[in-house]
């Protein structure tokens, strides 16, 4: 699974579309760093009204005597821009993601694997005509399918809210 995510990420980076002002956006989520989660996102414009986006997430949090948390995940999105000015403007995006997390909490081990599908609605601002600083904010709903091994506090499958704030650079 990890190899498939990496290969998909590399193939997205190799696309080339020269007729568009900003062809790519590289973003990160600084808010997640407060919780020990690093998220890097690459968006590639396909047409004036669409783009694909791939995110990779790495989580490592040491809670001292309470334990440790570690995980790896990824998400793919297909963004449909309403004003046909990708990557700038309002969009809707179906998304699919996967995350595997291992916990060691007070001596109890657990593993949680989550597959999710989501529908997101958001806006991305790109400052500059030929590229520049970008802000991407979205929210939506998701459905989680969860596999739990060991003693975990999470109950599992179900719907929930989804959202993200990312900052980056369009080029």
Query: Which whole number gives the mean pLDDT?
Result: 88
> In this structure, how is the largest beta sheet organized?
8 strands, antiparallel, barrel
**Estimated helix fraction:** under 10%
Stretches with pLDDT under 50, minimum 5 residues: 5-20
> What gyration radius follows from the Cα positions, in whole Å?
17 Å
By helix and strand content, what is the structural category?
mainly beta
Gross geometry:
elongated
Tally of contiguous helical segments: 1
**Quaternary structure type:** single chain
Going across the biggest sheet, name each strand in turn: 1-2-3-4-5-6-7-8
SSE string, helices as H and strands as E: HEEEEEEEE
Query: Care to count the β-strands?
Result: 8
Q: End-to-end distance, in Å?
A: 29 Å
Write the layout of secondary structure elements.
Blueprint: H1 2-13, E1 24-28, E2 37-47, E3 50-62, E4 67-81, E5 89-105, E6 108-126, E7 132-150, E8 158-170
Antiparallel strand pairs: 1-2, 1-8, 2-3, 3-4, 4-5, 5-6, 6-7, 7-8
Structure notes:
Helices cover 7% and strands 65% of the residues. It has one helix and eight strands. The protein has an eight-stranded antiparallel beta barrel with strand order 1-2-3-4-5-6-7-8. The chain starts with a helix and ends with a strand. Mean pLDDT is 88; it is low at 5-20.
């Amino acid at each position: 699974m990890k190899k498939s995510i990496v290969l998909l990420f590399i193939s997205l980076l190799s696309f080339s579309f020269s007729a568009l002002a900003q062809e790519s956006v590289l973003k990160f989520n600084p808010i997640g760093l407060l919780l020990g989660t690093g998220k890097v996102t690459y968006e590639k414009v396909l047409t004036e009204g669409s783009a694909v986006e791939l995110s990779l997430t790495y989580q490592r949090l040491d809670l001292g005597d309470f334990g440790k948390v570690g995980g790896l995940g990824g998400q793919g999105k297909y963004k449909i821009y309403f004003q046909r000015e990708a990557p700038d403007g309002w969009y809707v995006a179906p998304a699919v993601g996967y995350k595997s997390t291992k916990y060691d909490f007070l001596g109890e081990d657990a593993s949680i694997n989550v597959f999710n599908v989501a529908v997101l609605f958001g806006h991305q601002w790109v400052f500059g005509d030929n590229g520049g600083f970008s802000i991407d904010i979205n929210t939506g709903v998701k459905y989680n399918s969860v596999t739990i091994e060991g003693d975990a506090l999470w109950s599992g499958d179900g719907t929930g809210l989804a959202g993200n704030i990312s900052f980056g650079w369009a080029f």
